Amino acid sequence: MTFTTILFYAFIAVVVIQLIYYTSFLFSFAIKRSETRLKKQMPISVIICAKNEAKNIEKNLPNILNQDYSNFQIVLVNDSSSDNTLDIMEAFASTNPNIKIVDVKSNEAFWGNKKYALTLGIKASSHDFLVFTDADCIPASNKWLMQMSAHFSNKKSIVLGYGAYAKKKYSFLNKIIRYETVLTALQYFSYAKLGLPYMGVGRNMAYRKELFFNNCGFNNHMTIKSGDDDLFINEVANSSNTALCFSKESFTISEAKPSFGAWILQKRRHISTARLYKYKHQFLLGLFYGSQLLFWTLSISLLLLNFSWQWIAALTGFRFIIQWLTFGLTAKKFGETDLILLTPLLELFLITTQLSIFIANMISKPKHWK
């Protein structure tokens, strides 16, 4: 058996693995329709942790205050900001009695640790049902709280939502960021549908205060600067306590990072937490990424070695058809249809970028959340 034949058999195995993943994603989430639920509006506390976010608080907080919801509190956590974030918060609080401010002072033991600030905000909240978002996010509609809270029940104590990024014309970086966001959402929604929830995004998620304290909050990973959203969900979520909310009215929208450097730093923080996921999640996520990387590496290598291009084209084409179908239905669900035709290019760029981030994180770890 020649070397190229061995590579070809390996390529077949990789394509099969990719097809299993994408068909699982297709039938577990991509073709599913969002459920619209209307329930009695329970009291909700919205937690927003901000560090040097004066402009975003001033611009975005009115969108939270204008939610069509009868009983909600906003807990604004000022995490030792050096700008006038606290002043802006106090100005809003002076005219809105449903706002509570938690001013977190610098603490040597927890300096630069968002989890410490969030914990103080959660403790200060008045209600058991908590919804989380970031200072740079706005709800896609005034039904955001109504949609997210409707998925709570006696059994469901976690609600995972979708945090989109605003579109920017003529920006390849913006497309990369939105592609990665859709792909990540496709995975964490699909895994949750399959009974294996493993993460959520702090831009749009909810859980019960009781769940937080019954599981000792962030204690098990307090020294890790990132992971206030995904590590906590990875630790406490299971097939019976997790609900999904992906109606368009429930989305939040953020401004994407303006430069590759800022985005890379953000992704370095996010990726650094994956090594602390449960082993089954590490294996499944690692196998998916590894098979993506090998798909491109082996297909290009076989073509360079002049292996039968017809076989490579057939296998590659079939894999792309299933991927396009799965990603396309998901992108349509999230209003990101402009990304569909660019999927192969965006995928290749993202894979190589993630590989460089893995290598960089092995050399040095990002130290602060902002």
CATH class of the largest domain: Alpha Beta
- Report the total helices: 12
> Helix/strand-derived class?
alpha/beta
CATH third-tier fold name of the largest domain:
Spore Coat Polysaccharide Biosynthesis Protein SpsA, Chain A
CATH superfamily annotation of the largest domain: Spore Coat Polysaccharide Biosynthesis Protein SpsA, Chain A
| Molecular shape | elongated
Polypeptide structure, described:
Residues 45-211 form the Glycosyltransferase 2-like domain. The chain crosses the membrane at residues 6-31, 283-303, 309-327, 339-363. Keywords: Glycosyltransferase, Membrane, Transferase, Transmembrane, Transmembrane helix. The chain is α/β, with parallel strands linked by helices and 370 residues long. The chain has two domains: 3-30 and 280-361, no CATH class; 44-181 and 196-256, Spore Coat Polysaccharide Biosynthesis Protein SpsA, Chain A (Alpha-Beta Complex), CATH 3.90.550. The chain contains twelve helices and ten strands. The strands form two sheets. The chain has a seven-stranded mixed sheet with strand order 3-2-1-4-8-6-9, sandwiched between helices. It has a three-stranded mixed sheet with strand order 5-10-7. Helix 1 (3-30) packs across helix 6 (172-193), helix 1 (3-30) packs across helix 10 (279-304) and helix 9 crosses helix 12 (343-363). The N and C termini lie far apart (54 Å).
